[in-house]
Write the structure tokens for this entry.
Amino acid sequence: MQKTREFHRQSIDDRESFWRREAQRIHWETPFRQVLDYSNPPFARWFVGGRTNLCYNAVDRWLDTQGDQPALIWVSTEVDQEIVYTRADLAREVNAAAAILQELGVDQGDRVLIYLPMIPQAAFFMLACARIGAIHSVVFGGFASHNLAQRIDDAQPKVVVSTDAGSRGGRPIAYKPLLDQALDIAGHAPEHVVIIDRGLVPCAMREGRDLAYAPMRARHLDAHVPVVWLESNDPSYVLYTSGTTGNPKGVQRDTGGYAVALCASMEYIYGGKPGDVYFSSSDVGWVVGHSYVVYGPLLNGQATVMYEGTPVRPDAAVLWRIIEQYGVNALFSAPTAIRVLKKHDPGLLHRHDLSSLERIYLAGEPLDELTGQWLSEALDKPVIDNYWQTETGWPILSAQPGVEEAPTRFGSPSFPVYGYDVRVVDEATGKDAGPGQKGVVAIQPPLPPGAMSTIWRNDERFVHTYFESFPGRMLYSTSDWGLFDEDGYWYILGRTDDVINVAGHRLGTREIEESVNTHPAVAESAVVGVADSTKGQEAMAFAVLRNPDLLLEDGARDRLEAEIKTVIEQRNGAVARPARVRFVNTLPKTRSGKVLRRAIVALCEGRDPGDLTTIEDPGALDQIRSTL
Ligand code: ATP
Ligand code: MG
């Protein structure tokens, strides 16, 4: 990993020349005067004075060389449709969408809220906003009216773009009634709502406010909307964090820094080059959807696959079918999707020709050793664990095969990525920890290009939330525990608020979960700390079995519980031994695959689990409840 280390060192020690060189990857209409302005810490301003445009760099710049090549490949197993848009088709659609927004009076700096499922129009309108300098705020389609209203009030959009319905598991899910409700609750009223009518469910339009997309698009299909050249630090979008730990934060992103960072990451981290095909199965409503469904691949001249559907319908080979059909080179998914596949026939992994596929990237939650290894061995492809956050916009820790093919280790997202001066810091003293010592993963500012510039309209909350966690030092706190070993491999040990305190011992729930998962009968697990009058807290484990029928055998439940407790005791010590191990068919998760520990704890402590609109399957909580 010598090369990776050297590359990283340059990016920190000689920050300016490093990023000056990387900035040449994109088109600057006006060159920047200064690589970095860090005169007002912790606010970093990258490529000051430079003028550029995300849409120009993602679409127009590639028209000459790749006009007739696929740019956006839309696959929907929900409505059984597939459309390949060439770069020229994409340009046409984006210009039409930009003309629609302009007709509705949207100007530079105005916000446009996009509440859409995984349909190509989501990308068209994001890029259209970028083209005219409007700020988009995409809200995940799984959110309901309360979440939506919160975000509408915070972002104050002039226009909302939405649809009649999404679809999940082949059944339509109405969007418009949720949007109408949200607009009734919200204090802020957008001037117009553009509705993309997919004809999935009847859709009531409100006179004067709601407008149909199709006729407007038809009118503007030959429009050419001039690009607005933004100063590098002008905001491109606001995206709310998933809210796993509470109130969502409106992450504000810049323009030039983001374009440069994404473009560089496509090569160094994802091993991509112009003409390659990239497939991220994330929803556009999450940061991965912004960075690696829409902007990253397109900025680097690659085609992107946008997928509306689940990994198991029509069967659990659908991801592999898409990869074969479109010659995908890199797949980006989440550990949760792979754990789902693990429960299906392993033969499905070999039904398709995957020779185009070079690597698989997984991110968003801990990738346990066994799942990573299982997939990698089954497909005989490298599986790369990426660690990052909505806030950073691109990976903080990852293998970087475009820099060097260094060996990876399952359970570790490898090394700090160039640009990030990552540390492990002792919470109490604020001092850097050494190899093997646990601490909070922190970043010495300035944050690199592409990372959040601030919290939307709340500089104070930005500083307070992220930069005031350590005594005597201004460091960005990720709020995750981690460590690095003697060889320089990093490990994420869970969230700082997922730590449990048993009789004075602080234990990361992630470490205990890893132990539970080593039991051969277990598919996945969640460990939480529950209030206990003597020990402060005690651990409770919930496990999903690979084969739930095991429990039908006499005495199996008790035997498995005892075995799992023993494994934990052996690996994590007696204090970590959970009070109880309970078996469920599914864990309560957010739709982005994160376990809702807050809700489990509340149930275990007999409290109300609170706002759960982001939950994937409400039945999962009933199961937890019934085991208690
Ligand atoms: P909120 O900040 O609103 O509570 P969130 O943190 O869940 O929401 P995201 O920004 O989507 O929202 O998630 C980032 C977090 O996900 C990281 O801080 C980390 O806890 C976890 N995470 C992401 N990737 C990995 C990974 N590869 N390994 C372990 N944990 C990961
Ligand atoms: Mg977070």
DSSP finds 19 helices and 32 strands in the chain. The two ends are 48 Å apart (CA to CA).
